[in-house]
Amino acid sequence: MHRTLKAALIGIACLFGLPVAAFLTWDAIVFRPHLDDIHQQLVQANRDAQPVAPRVRRLIEASVDDVPAHVGSMLLDRFDPAKVTGNRQVAAVLWGFSVRLHFSAQQRDTLFATMAWNGRDHGLDPHARRVYGRPLSELNATEAATAVAWASAPGFYAHHPAELRLRARALLLRSEGNGPQAGHLVN
What we know:
The chain is built from ten helices and no strands.
């Protein structure tokens, strides 16, 4: 009986311990070398624009099912685009786990706001300044929702403004806790 219990405990430790150890090793080898660059991007974002307002943070979280995974995918594209061997989805999941591990929710939302493709360049604030002539932090709720919605499909929404308005309205409702989940939003 004692031998069976010991073997079961070792099996459980291996079942859970080995994947955690493998992830932490991957994190140390692949992700951590980019931490300084990512922190510099956060510093630059805070220098260029005001911190992401709580309303915009709620809109970002309403727009994307899993902000850390989305940011991880954007970071993967930026720092490791050609080096991904094997399954890109697995690499994106690992980057998302590392984003979750190393950055707070506010930092993740700031990274999303500065790295999101807006059809011309990166960032929600440059898009807001170009479209509305004001920084993202000064937009009203509808304008902010439209700017966040735009980042999900700028090429599509450039030709379908009615769909953009629908998505912005859905984001507003969801950010207030009244709408469908992000995965169920139109487009």
